[in-house]
Amino acid sequence: MKKIVKYSLLFILAIVCSAGIFFAGVYFGVFGHLYTKEELRDFKNESASLVLAENGELLGKYFVQNRTNVKFHQIPTHLINALLATEDVRFYEHEGVDARSLMRVLVKSIIFQQESAGGGSTLTQQLAKNMYGRKSFGPLTTAVNKSKEIILANRLEELYNKQDILQLYLNTVPFGEDIYGVESAARRYFNKQVEELNQEESAVLVGMLKANTYYNPRLYPEHALQRRNTVLDQMFKYDFIDEREKDSLQLLPIRLDYANLKNQGKANYFLVHIKRELEKIIDSINLKEGTSYNIYTDGLIVQTSLNLEMQLYALTAYQKHLSKMQPLLDRQYSKGSDKKILTSLSEEILNKGNFQDVGKRKKREIFSWEGFRSDSITVLDSIRRDLSVLHAGMLGLEPNTGAIKVWVGGIDFRRYPYDQIFAQRQIASTFKPILYAAALENGINPCNYISNDSLVLTDFDNWTPKNYDNSFGGKYSVAAALAKSMNIPTVRLFLSLPFAELHTMWNDLGFSQHLETNPSVALGTSIASIYELTRAYAAFANGGKKIQPYGIVSIKSAEGETIYQYKDVKNDEQVMSESTSMMMTAMLRKAVSEGTGKAISSQFGVTKEIAGKTGTSQDYADAWFAGFTPNLVLVSRVGCNSPSLHFNTGALGSGGKLALPLVGYTFRNLQGNKKLSSQYLTNFAPMSEEALESFICEDYIEDSDFEKFFDKIFNNPEMTSEKAAKKAQKETKKKESFFKKLFKKRN
């Protein structure tokens, strides 16, 4: 018996000595660097930068780890109680290590080599693990990591008070779905800030700490409910809540308000653009100040100019209008020759690509305006569906400052991330105001008349421009020709203007593409983006000045220090005279009240003063509308990715039918918002007497009998239809022009 006792004691002593030597080896860095107190004191959580809308609401984040740090006072008491009751009820009694469970854990991990020895880690030890992670040491992995965490926990307790440790812990702990910290978790699962969490929501989040995927309330709601109720049981057990409160809370269902900003944000396309703008600003600050700010890790607070109400109005317009137009296009391409065109184009793309198992059906996610759905389709079916999708972009900004207010870069960021705001497409008749502005700058008067006689350009392969309704004959005033988007007079105006004047105007307005000298340019064959066109139209609204759009108003550090403030740039670069700008605005108001944009008032009920221009590119490939007030410019474009696919008729595919409604719905909702309406739907400034006089003329005058005879003999007689004659006759009855009506009292 003595020998048994002797050898048992020796065995225990050997174990203790071995454990001591092992622990000493960990302490002195035999198993890798152990962080010092100085390093622990300097520890800084990586924190996501927040991007805020004009009203301070969160739009999105930039991060390596999706984390937003919060202060202790922001964390609800019931969340702290749930955490302590579930994870470390003796937290305020120990100094980093719970002695009661320490031996149990060491025996299990060292003697029995159990990787899941757990159950003994205090919150401070868990914090050490969250701060620096764990590494592999073969069969000693668990023992080494546990020992390191014990040493680090002790050091943390010496450096920080209990509140600091709880704050650090709740800012570092993972909650699944690549999010870290309780603030990010509150926003993700309940779409609220951490201080707004109620008691049962806090219990759900604390319950996730045991296994954040298995207890994810979105993926496994039944697991999350069970675990939440366990947390509530623990809170009752340790007197944080009474039995009645526990029972009532356990009866409640889990109500999520899931908000994955990365996929479902209100302004994801805008966030991509802002990130580029932010990177340039931060690089400039770091270079100038010698700082090292990082947009992904330093928790910057980025205030933007985006107006969230207006943005939501635009998104509503997309849903309302495009959900109606998409089925009509789908129906067109479901039969006959159109179906063959779509299939042929799809097969061409398929043959060029490197696709696997092209004939095999598999579950694929399909976009629709009713929401994403899964269907078993082939690769060819998927390509065919994507090709016939109507894409759209809309940009809104303040013409006097360049502040971006609306940015909708597409129909769905997750499925179609390419930003339509920057797509280069034919701008069609939205180009015409640029031509007319150049003409006004060159001495043309709004009441100068331009012949509408048919025209054959022998120097350009006998090209014959035609009006939208195939009419010809008579003469249109410059103002009326633009308002009614007449093609023949526009081409004649182009031919009468020195090309250098137009080219200068095009470049000064900020367009990036080369402007061709071909007369077809007059009708909008040049390409440009929504971004460029919006900036150009701002010059019509702001007195002829060139502006630079911007989205970032200010940037603050995580500590709240302002490191960047946008300074209002005085836009003094005149790209056209103020008088030309005012006359163009008046002509484009006429285009909305009497011309191709009149649906703004007749269909959408917008009674405020709006100026604008529609555009329809060749074969209805792209539909455009640019509308503006003195304080807001809105430009939209709609079309398939391939210009080969489009509506076959103007009744569906013209700018007035396909693009204008996006702006129309947005303006209508703005009009119903008293605050925004008073700010952005204001009246245009009155015109000077001299400018008014330049508009007092008839829109249309008929040719003389001699001119009619001459045109009939020499200018394409087959085009003189009864319809065109009646139209011309009708136009002559308009004795009082738009401008006489508009300024009658003033005159």
UniProtKB/TrEMBL annotation:
Gene3D superfamilies: Biosynthetic peptidoglycan transglycosylase-like, DD-peptidase/beta-lactamase superfamily. It catalyses: [GlcNAc-(1->4)-Mur2Ac(oyl-L-Ala-gamma-D-Glu-L-Lys-D-Ala-D-Ala)](n)-di-trans,octa-cis-undecaprenyl diphosphate + beta-D-GlcNAc-(1->4)-Mur2Ac(oyl-L-Ala-gamma-D-Glu-L-Lys-D-Ala-D-Ala)-di-trans,octa-cis-undecaprenyl diphosphate = [GlcNAc-(1->4)-Mur2Ac(oyl-L-Ala-gamma-D-Glu-L-Lys-D-Ala-D-Ala)](n+1)-di-trans,octa-cis-undecaprenyl diphosphate + di-trans,octa-cis-undecaprenyl diphosphate + H(+); Preferential cleavage: (Ac)2-L-Lys-D-Ala-|-D-Ala. Also transpeptidation of peptidyl-alanyl moieties that are N-acyl substituents of D-alanine. InterPro entries: Beta-lactam/transpept-like, Glyco_trans_51, Glycosyltr_51/Transpeptidase, Lysozyme-like_dom_sf, PBP_transglycosylase, PCN-bd_Tpept. The chain crosses the membrane at residues 7-35. It comes from Namhaeicola litoreus. GO terms for molecular function: glycosyltransferase activity. This is Transglycosylase domain-containing protein. Pathway: Cell wall biogenesis; peptidoglycan biosynthesis.
